[in-house]
């Protein structure tokens, strides 16, 4: 059954290349809604809808960091984006049932927050695709670090996702606490194999100490074609060039979906 979504727009303003709206969305009638930043290209309209991407941030980050970097790069190329605050992050740090610092010691807390994040990222796809300015047949997911682990799970389960970008993402690290529980809940290797041959781009720093090059390579090797991995002389924080490269790649793949 389709979920009826509603939103509250808190503010809207013009930005370079389009407009930016601060909003919160969620199931109609629900008490809690997901805070988000929506960027829409100036030319996007019901008659000329734009491709769109849901942006998923990393651990301890927030929606604004994704909107102001990846979102801005995609807006310059005519893509709409929706960046959301994941549970216990951004505006939602104080809302939670648990302190995020307990995750390493409490697998149940991790499981609950992860399921919430998956559900909300899926709702974000539905909300973005329902916007009249956005083409629901040309949707993508872009995830950074923790957002990459989440993004591959959501994209694998959602045929609406036509392309996937994973930045600073990979397989789980060796020696993950409660590894069997975590693999059962969110196994990146299993998820990427289910991505059904849709286009995948990974961008990664060769010197990343957080999600290592070996983790990235394991995930890439498990993925189906078409796939591409691009390496940068960087650590966990990727250079602007990586964002620009990902933007160009994503535009070409989503426009191919329209024309191909």
Report on the structure:
The protein has 260 residues and is an alpha/beta fold. Helices cover 35% and strands 27% of the residues. The chain has 7 helices and 9 strands; from the N terminus they run ββββαβαβαβααβαβα. The protein has helices at 63-75, 107-130, 146-157, 179-185, 188-193, 213-222, 240-259, and strands spanning 5-15, 18-27, 34-41, 50-56, 80-84, 134-144, 161-167, 200-205, 227-232. Helix 1 crosses helix 7 and helix 2 packs across helix 3.
Throw out a few tags for this protein.
single chain, 260 residues, alpha/beta, Rossmann fold, nine-stranded mixed β-sheet, 7 helices, 35% helix
How many domains? The number is 1
Which percent range fits the helix content?
A: 25-40%
CATH class: Alpha Beta
CATH overall fold name = Rossmann fold
Largest sheet: 9 strands, mixed
Unreliably modeled segments:
none
Tell me the β content: 25-35%
If you average the pLDDT, what whole number results? Answer: 90
CATH superfamily: Alpha/Beta hydrolase fold, catalytic domain
Put simply, the count of helices is 7
Question: What gross morphology would you assign?
Answer: globular
Would you summarize the structure shown here?
With 260 residues, the protein is an alpha/beta fold. The protein has seven helices and nine strands; from the N terminus they run ββββαβαβαβααβαβα. Helix content is 35%, strand content 27%.
Question: What is the strand and helix layout of this fold?
Answer:
Elements: E1 5-15, E2 18-27, E3 34-41, E4 50-56, H1 63-75, E5 80-84, H2 107-130, E6 134-144, H3 146-157, E7 161-167, H4 179-185, H5 188-193, E8 200-205, H6 213-222, E9 227-232, H7 240-259
Parallel strand pairs: 4-5, 4-6, 6-7, 7-8, 8-9
Antiparallel strand pairs: 1-2, 2-3, 3-5
Helix pairs in contact: 1-7, 2-3
């Amino acid at each position: 059954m389709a979920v009826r979504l509603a939103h509250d727009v808190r503010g809207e303003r013009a930005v370079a290349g389009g407009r930016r709206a601060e909003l919160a969305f969620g199931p109609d009638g629900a008490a809690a809604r997901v805070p988000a930043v929506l960027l829409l290209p100036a030319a996007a309209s019901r008659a000329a809808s734009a491709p769109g991407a849901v942006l998923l941030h990393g651990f301890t980050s927030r929606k604004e960091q994704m909107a102001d970097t990846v979102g801005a790069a995609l807006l310059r190329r005519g893509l709409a984006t929706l960046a959301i605050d994941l549970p216990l992050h951004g505006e939602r740090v104080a809302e939670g049932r648990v302190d995020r610092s307990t995750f390493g010691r409490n697998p149940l807390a991790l499981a609950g927050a992860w399921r919430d994040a998956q559900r909300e990222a899926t709702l974000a796809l539905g909300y973005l695709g329902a916007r009249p300015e956005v083409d629901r047949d040309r949707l993508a997911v872009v995830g950074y670090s923790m957002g990459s682990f989440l993004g591959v799970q959501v994209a694998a389960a959602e045929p609406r996702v036509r392309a996937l970008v994973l930045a600073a993402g990979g397989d789980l690290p060796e020696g993950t606490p409660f590894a069997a529980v975590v693999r059962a809940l969110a196994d990146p290797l299993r998820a990427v194999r289910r991505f059904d041959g849709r286009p995948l781009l990974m961008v990664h720093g060769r010197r990343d100490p957080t999600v290592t090059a070996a983790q990235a390579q394991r995930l890439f090797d498990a993925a189906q074609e078409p796939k591409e991995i691009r390496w940068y002389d960087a650590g966990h924080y990727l250079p602007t060039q990586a964002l620009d490269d990902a933007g160009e790649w994503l535009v070409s793949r989503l426009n191919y979906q329209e024309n191909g």
